[in-house]
Amino acid sequence: MRIAFLSILTAATMFAADGPTIKQVPLKQTSPVDGKAMFSMYCAVCHGADGKGNGPAAPAMKHSPGDLTKMTINNKGKFPDERIAMSIVGSSGIAAHGNDQMPIWGDLFKSVSNDNSIIRLRISNLTDYIKSIQTKK
């Protein structure tokens, strides 16, 4: 696999005169089989290590990142696997996904591997990890 040097959000927010800003850093390679590692590397900076939307970059964002731990509760008790996978890929139609606030991870995953089965594995394992952090009540 080749390592891409595309920018992603970093955990460090910078404080400029007009408030916090988000620093862009190169995309780092993670294992496609480790959903938790991918979440920590790609999602936690905004959504927080616990997925509740309280990541270190959240204060610099125009819109607060969503609480990913309530996806099942907010979907009448059923985890929305397909909707989450589509959001990761960037085909969900949700405005926050794919703008300057949230990268389209499908494109970034393609930059580290041109093997479609590896890209699907990444998306599936990241979706499964988000499913695993759902609150029960």
List the helices and strands and how they pair.
Layout: E1 7-16, E2 19-26, H1 35-47, H2 81-89, H3 105-112, H4 116-132
Antiparallel strand pairs: 1-2
Report on the architecture of this protein.
- This protein has about 140 residues and is an alpha+beta fold.
- It has 4 helices and 2 strands; from the N terminus they run ββαααα.
- The chain has a two-stranded antiparallel sheet.
- A hairpin with a 2-residue loop joins strand 1 and strand 2 (about 20-25).
- Helix 1 (about 35-45) crosses helix 4 and helix 2 crosses helix 4.
- It is globular and about 40 Å long.
- The termini are far apart.
- Residues about 1-15 have low confidence and may be disordered.
Name the beta content range. 5-15%
Structural class given helices, strands, pairing? alpha+beta
Question: Can you tell me the residue ranges where pLDDT is under 50 for at least 5 consecutive residues?
Answer: 1-17
Please name the CATH topology: Cytochrome Bc1 Complex, Chain D, domain 2
